Amino acid sequence: MKKLFPKGLLAIALCCTAGYRVSAQQKDTLPPTQPANQSVYPLNVGEPRQYEIADIQVVGTQYLDKSLLLSLSGLNVGDKVTYPGGDQFTKAIQSLWSQRLFADVTIYVTKIEGDKIWLEIGLTEMPRMSSFNWKGIKKSESDELTTKSGIRKGSVITDALKQTVRGTVHKYYADKGFGNATVRIDQRVDSGQVNSAHLTFVVNKGNKVRTENIYFADNYNIPDSRIKKKMKGTKERSRLTLHPDTEHYFKDSVVTPDDFWKTYGYLQPSRAVEKLDPYFRFKLFSSSKFNENKYLEDKGKIIALYNARGYRDAVITKDTTYKTPSQNLNIEMRIAEGRKYYFGDITWKGNTRYNDSALTRILGIKKGDIYNLELLEKRLGKQMSQEGGDITSAYMDNGYLFFQIDPVEIGIRGDTIDYEIRMREGPQATIKEVRIAGNEKTNEHVIRRELRTIPGEKFSRQDLIRSQREISNLGFFNPEKIGINPVPNVSDGTVDIDYTVEEKANDQLELSAGWGGYIGLTGTLGVTFNNFSLRNIFKKETWDPLPSGDGQKLSVRVSSNGKAYRSYNFSFTEPWLGGKKRNQFSVSFYSSYQNPYAYNDYYKGLYGDTTTSTDGHFKVLGASVSLGKQLKWPDDYFSLIYSLNYQQYKLKNYNYFGIQGFENGISNNVNFKITLARSSVDQPIFPRSGSSFMLSAQYTPPYSLFNPDKDYTKEPVSQQFKFIEYQKYRFNAEWYVPLSKPMGSDAKTFVLKVAAKFGYISRYNNRTTLSPFGRFELGGDGLSNFAIYDRDIISQRGYPVYYTSDPSVNPDNGQPANYGGFTVFNKYVMELRYPFSLNPSSTIFGLAFLEAANGYKDIQEYNPFRLRRSAGIGMRFYLPMFGLLGFDYGIGFDRIRPGGGLKDAAKFTFMLGFEPE
């Protein structure tokens, strides 16, 4: 800097490193041995006087805006400052230093003329991070830590940034059980860029910190084992422990558990456990990694456990965690249980809609019951739940939206607590407006007709829940994003209801193609439009790719296996025929062709005249019309469906059924089917609650009754089956039960599915023969079975198709060559499901299953307990474009034979587009 005042120029240098300090120094006379940032005693500059700032310069910055920095300093041209000794400079230094962007902040006085002063703010910026990398961890972990910490190239390297990284790393690995994780930050100057540095984050995860032991003291009324069971997130390390029933064995003995372990510990674990049994038990599948957040939650659960048992004053007076020699943790807790309380008198105040006895009955708590505040609040409905059955639900289902309830303790007599339940019912709310938002593709009337909340009617909480279910079951919207927001208008006693939806793709495409040389073109082309609009079919501007938005379903499918097989399917469904009532109308047409001899000429050319070229085929032509109606009784979950169906079967040199004389001919199947169904499942793809039932009866015309003197069994088979007659009954039942209460609509929880199915087909009388069509075929996955034969395919995981009801007959080792199918079947299913992703664009869930099923030739052979059994695991993937995909690995227990293993009894099955029966 130019030397302006050789004898008296003063500079105020405030140099900040770990805080800041003020120094006054004369730049031209600074001793050569004096470090630049070390304090120097000020020169004699005279008495303090006031100056006006004539100019301020900011120097030393490379990235930051100078005008912004000048504004942050609080110093402006024209301001009055006192020099020397004024605190304006100190405040300016503090303000700039607090930004944590600078390694050094200095203010110089460069010139003084009269009452004018010229200043220069000298800044040394913190270096910028030109690049960074992680060491000691996987790439997936480093990517996640980069995102969580928010670091990026170009960031200013500050102590705050380093502290953020350290905190993020510690929390990230602590949540995974690595409570001793550390990170070292190495900083290296980047010579390729000005004032830049490269950072290396060296992570040492260390070993997982596990909970070694949990000890309790003063818990006289609840045993350790019960408290530990409540601590879902904090488990003791797996080890051998004494069986409770054998603890007495060691009480009066010099032999200790440690002696046992020393004696048998050298054995292999399985041998050791075997040897120690029945004195010990082994805790298996116990995750003992320590997580601070889960530990805090578990302490709350312990208090909740005591409160639920009447100990409302229970507290944890002391809890200590300390490290063991193995660097794991021991936990010690001391609990003050307090006394046990009971409910006393419960009185009601403010109720007019329901009398005291009715409210007491809904509450379900009697005098003398163990005190449980959580149960009381649940029965009062302080925390809303979809299950209902509480006081608040009873009122809100009758329009009392403004209802308020407050339990008040009015007396404690020893161990008895009296309550007064105070209520303010308010007026019954009337629905004023119903608004819908988010439906970009689906027409509003499609959603509105599903709603149970109608303007002008009384508000009902149950109607809100039902409306949400109906919107979800449309399949057009993300079920996790359906929002319902009642907006009360207290002034006029009305309520507006806002529904929000999020469209999801649900049209499906099935496409495969190939060329088989001799057999020709093979493949499948299928499209399903689940939100079709027939009325806009002639409006070109609505095609994208087809007109949509009216909730109709259009499906077209063509499949071919060259010369051997081809099929055509078309169906259309209108769920609200006429637009005013839920009358579902459907029509479908289908045609299929199979030639079992298509390859004979091909094999003849390869192997010589070993086969005979035969012209034969099996053709099916069918059509169906159905009309479904929603019922009001017993409740509006019921529906009644009528359908009229026709199938024509043409056989030419086709003897698959094994019925002599039935290789050629035409059979006609005209039947009427009536179905009573009830469904209350909450959503179609991954149901978490509800049930569905279906009972159907299917009848052909009783042709034989028109001519009671004729014995049709003596007619040629082709004549017997010219007009098929039978009566057929089906029953299906499914239940879905969540095994834990989800805390939100998108929460994941285990779901138990239980199902039972039954089917029976028979003749009207003994003067007719039951045809092979319409029967039941069991085993397989529903895809490999020949559904072309008009069979009800009842899949069973772990088994191929089987034709005998004897479980001892292994279908892998040969079975009776009778393909006539079964006339009776029953099936039981139990599945435990868990969702890995509830995203509507890719819903994924896994399952474990137990299955038992069997088919029977006639009702005399029927035995509902003579079953083929299987178990296994599976996965389901729902992709909107392709529908439901699934894989199962099942083991058929009745396929296991002496000398064979589970591998020989295992079978992979695959499903596409539908859940097999």
TrEMBL record:
Keywords: Cell outer membrane, Membrane, Repeat, Signal, Transmembrane, Transmembrane beta strand. GO terms for cellular component: outer membrane. Coiled coil: none annotated. The keyword Signal applies. The keyword Transmembrane applies. PROSITE patterns: POTRA. GO terms for biological process: membrane assembly. Its main location: membrane. PANTHER family: SORTING AND ASSEMBLY MACHINERY SAMM50 PROTEIN FAMILY MEMBER, TRANSLOCATION AND ASSEMBLY MODULE SUBUNIT TAMA. This is Beta-barrel assembly machine subunit BamA. The lineage of its organism: Bacteria, Pseudomonadati, Bacteroidota, Chitinophagia, Chitinophagales.
